[in-house]
Amino acid sequence: xxxxxxxxxxxxxxxxxxxxxxxxxxxxxxxxxxxxxxxxxxxxxxxxxxxxxxxxxxxxxxxxxxxxxxxxxxxxxxxxxxxxxxxxxxxxxxxxxxxxxxxxxxxxxxxxxxxxxxxxxxxxxxxxx
Length: 129
Hints:
The protein is of the alpha+beta class. It has a domain at 37-120: PH-domain like. Helix content is 36%, strand content 31%. The strands form 2 sheets. The chain has a 3-stranded antiparallel β-sheet with strand order 1-2-3. Strands 4-5-6 form a 3-stranded antiparallel β-sheet. The longest helix is centred in the first third of the chain and has 23 residues, at 12-34.
């Protein structure tokens, strides 16, 4: 006695829809993997001025975060292996407070990330460190 591949009591219309649903889900995942990051990148921006940095991002739900220079405690610039390969970096800003205590800005050129970091660092000469 062999093991049946499909149950005999499954409706025929369900057997027709399952491959179509599988194809649709696979296509959506492929689109999400390759196309969505480009769309997200186009809808992200930042602005640096004397008061601080403003980061806007989001395709469907838009969020704008303004980090004043007076709230910046320290900053980091990091690069993963792929970012290093393409000359990119991630700027991480740590702030005082609980809301948005850590703000990331990804996809910057490494030189831009370093320049923004230097701009946001305090320029006090009385620092004991």
